[in-house]
Amino acid sequence: MTRTWQIADVTDAVRARLATARLAAACGVPPLERTRLTASLGAQLRLCLAKGGVWRLTLETGTVSPAPPEAARNVLHAVVTPSLDDAAAGQPPWRVTVPCPETVPDAGADVAGDDPQALAEALLGADEDTALVLERLTEQEGLVDFHREELQQTNQGVVALHAELDAAGRAQREAFAAERTARTEAENARRRLTFLADASAVLTASLDHHEIVRRLPGLLVPEYAASVDVWLFDQEGERPAPAHPAAAVAAARTGRPQYAAAQPGGLPGVDDQPPSPLGPDRPLLCIPLPTRQAPLGVVTLSPPGEPWDPDDAVMLVELTRRASTAIDHAQRYQHNRDIAETLQRALLTELPAPPGLALAARYLPATHGLNIGGDWYDAFRQPDGGVIAVVGDVTGHGLRAAVMMSQLRTALRAYAVDGGSPGRLLTRLHTFLHHLQPDLFATAVIARFHPDDPTMTWAAAGHPPPVLRTPDGRVRTLDAKPGAMLGIPLRQEIADHTVPLAPGTTLALYTDGLVERRAQGIDPGIARLAHALGSFAPPELETDLEGSADGILRPLLSDSERDDDVCLLLCHFRGPA
After folding, report:
1. Judging by beta carbons within 10 Å of its beta carbon (0-12, 13-18, 19+), is residue 564 exposed, middle or buried?
2. Nearest C-alpha neighbor of 269 from the set 228, 218, 308, 213
3. Which helix (H) or strand (E) element contains residue 467?
């Protein structure tokens, strides 16, 4: 079915629009599609009227079969074209097609006409369609509002989630930053503790306070200081201030660390001072070297670059304290060593020159550690003309051992005035030492010569055995059973031993410092001593006993660490006067 309308004014357009709506309703076009069709047609007709002229609307219903017959469907075509005799002729037509579910009405039926009743019905149908569309639009708006609210809630949830994620990320970043800071602080603390431990080991490895002072700058430069100056006070305790910064003088006077710079340092336990006139552009940290009585001196440092932070300052103060302890111990050690060595040498005997007997002695104090003071030798005449030669060693070292050695030496000389054999003298010394110093022990060997007797009497108490060389060059150790050490809590009677003497016989008495080595023990050293004593030609021992003593010391001490005193007493028997 085809219907055509001529449209020249608004009335024609309205009638054509209503006819289209009525036909679409009759064809069963859904209200929404019907409204869209009439709205689109109305908009197009307004454009046509605006252009002017006469336009033609053609409505055509029919069947479209793009597929098999069972798939054919009804459609409604609407076409707007200009009239053939109008000026707008030749413009492209406006077309729209909508499906028609219902049967197409008879071609002879009048869908619009000029009947007022039909027109009213058509308008009412259009209003119903519009109302239905509006209702649908209202429902859609409700759905849109619902979805908009859901979307808004979702957006709020997303915003809240983003806020939580941002807060969690910020907290995680702060935690990571705190962890990095803690790790850095822990690493710096570990580095400082390691440095303190290593530096303390270096400082305490020496017992020479000058060497400790020399090592201190090498430990601090360049990591913790650009320069280090160590000011040690002299023994009288004077403070020669003019040669040192005012902050160093203040540290010496107050015993507190001082920081001299243009800006306060804010270092813990450190007093701030104005910059030093000796270097106004250079900050100075002056730390006293503390002891229990008074400071030993002041260490003045300049920063390596940036000023010290509080932890570095605390570490530097602690290192200075440890250096002060090491210097104090070294000075005390050197003082005690000097006293012990002075006492030891003062008590060493000037050897006698009895007829028929030559004597040569050597004493070398230990050069490492406070091991000086316990070894001694002595030789003196008895009232009956006999000669006592003795070598001894007090256990322990230092000033106390030197004092005990002097007491034993004096007691032996006193006992020897009353006479008595070497064994008897050692027995009395054992009793004397046990009652005088129960916690000290000693070893000793005594040999007695008499110009009218071709024999030698000897006795030993816990001491290395004497070494005897006969005139024919043979050497042997006198290894008869000795007594126990002097002073042990044991009652003992030390026995005498006798050895025949021929002119040209040489006896070597010594302490363990000459023959004992930690890695080898004492027996190899005694064997080396015997070899050295046997290597001399008889004229050497007869004419140069002093040179022979030196010739024994050189090979035996070539591998010694000199951590113990060394005593050697050579007795060369020339025969009756």
Report:
1. buried
2. 308
3. strand 467-469
Structure tokens at 15: 């009638």
Q: Mind listing the pLDDT tens digit for each residue in 471-485?
A: 999 999 998 888 999
Q: Is 435 exposed, middle or buried (0-12, 13-18, 19+ CB in 10 A)?
A: exposed
In DSSP notation, 135-194 reads: HHHHHHHHHHHHHHHHHHHHHHHHHHHHHHHHHHHHHHHHHHHHHHHHHHHHHHHHHHHH
Q: What is the pLDDT of residue 243?
A: 67
Cα four-point dihedral sign 164, 165, 166, 172: positive
Residue 10 phi/psi, 5-degree rounding, is -65, -40
Dihedral, CA of residue 419, residue 425, residue 427 and residue 432, to nearest 10: 100
* Distance (Å) of CA 195 to CA 31, 45, 191, 310, 471: 93, 98, 6, 16, 63
Alpha-carbon distance values, 59 to 7, 21, 90, 123, 314 (Å)? 13, 11, 20, 19, 103
| Confidence band for 241, pLDDT divided at 50, 70 and 90 | very low
Helix (H) or strand (E) holding 280: none
DSSP 498-533: EEE--TTEEEEEE-HHHH-BTTTBSHHHHHHHHHHH
Q: Quote the tokens at residue 346.
A: 């003062």
Cα–Cα distance, 57 to 91 (Å, whole number): 14
Residue 112 has pLDDT above 50, yes or no: no
Give the rounded distance of the alpha carbon of 243 from its chain centre.
38
Residue 490 DSSP symbol = S
401: nearest Cα among 369, 360, 445: 369
Say whether pTM exceeds 0.85: no
**Selection from 468, 397, 410, 462 nearest residue 436 by Cα:** 410
Contact 444, 460 (CB under 8 A): yes
* 238: its two tokens: 């004077």
* Alpha-carbon span 22 to 25, nearest angstrom: 5
Closest CA to 457 of 417, 503, 423: 423
Beta bridge partners of 378: 390
Q: Which of 431, 446, 424 is nearest to 376 (CA)?
A: 446
pLDDT of residue 369: 53
| Complete DSSP assignment for 341-374 | HHHHHHHSPPPP--TTEEEEEEEE--SSSS--SS
- In this structure, are strands 442-450 and 55-64 parallel, antiparallel, or unpaired? unpaired
Q: Is the pLDDT of residue 118 over 70?
A: no
Cβ neighbourhood burial of 71 (10 Å; 0-12, 13-18, 19+): exposed
- How far is C-alpha 395 from the geometric centre of its chain's CA atoms? 43
Sole residue written with tokens 């064997």: 527
Radius of gyration over every alpha carbon of the chain, rounded to an integer in angstroms: 62
Question: Is the Cβ–Cβ distance between 37 and 29 less than 8 Å?
Answer: yes
Residues in the chain: 577
